[in-house]
Amino acid sequence: MKPDYTFDCGDGRTILIEYYQNYQVMQLAFEGMVYHLTRTRSASGARYSNGYLTFWEKGGTAFIERHGQIVAQKCVVQVDNKP
Q1: Do residues 53 and 28 lie in contact, with contact meaning Cβ atoms separated by under 8 Å?
Q2: Pairwise CA distance, residues 83 & 75, whole Å
Q3: 39-51: per-residue pLDDT in tens?
Q4: Residue 44: what pLDDT?
């Protein structure tokens, strides 16, 4: 995976993001797993989900939910990795 963005969660974990199809689909690597998520409706920010995992980003800060439980939060995009 060649990430477009890397998010640092501040606890040693990172989120790697690679976008496809004009930002409508993403590949997300987190905790040794790779997920394929599609863009979903959001009142604010960018939200992607596959029904199991949800990634939500706004203003360079992101969080991940798994089965409705937040498993990573306050993850900050690394500016040296922005395209």
Answers
A1: yes
A2: 18
A3: 999 888 899 999 9
A4: 86
The structure tokens 């969080």 sit at 63
45 and 60 in contact (C-beta within 8 Å)?
no
Q: Which domains does the chain have, with CATH numbers?
A: 5-81 (2.40.128.200)
Cα separation, 14 vs 8, whole angstroms: 5
Give the model's pLDDT for residue 81: 52
Neighbours of 32 (CB within 10 A): 5
> Minimal CA–CA distance to 57: which of 83, 79, 75?
75
66 pLDDT tier (thresholds 50, 70, 90): very high
Instruction: Name the token pair of 22.
Output: 């004009």
Q: Rounded to whole angstroms, how far apart are CA atoms 75 and 31?
A: 14
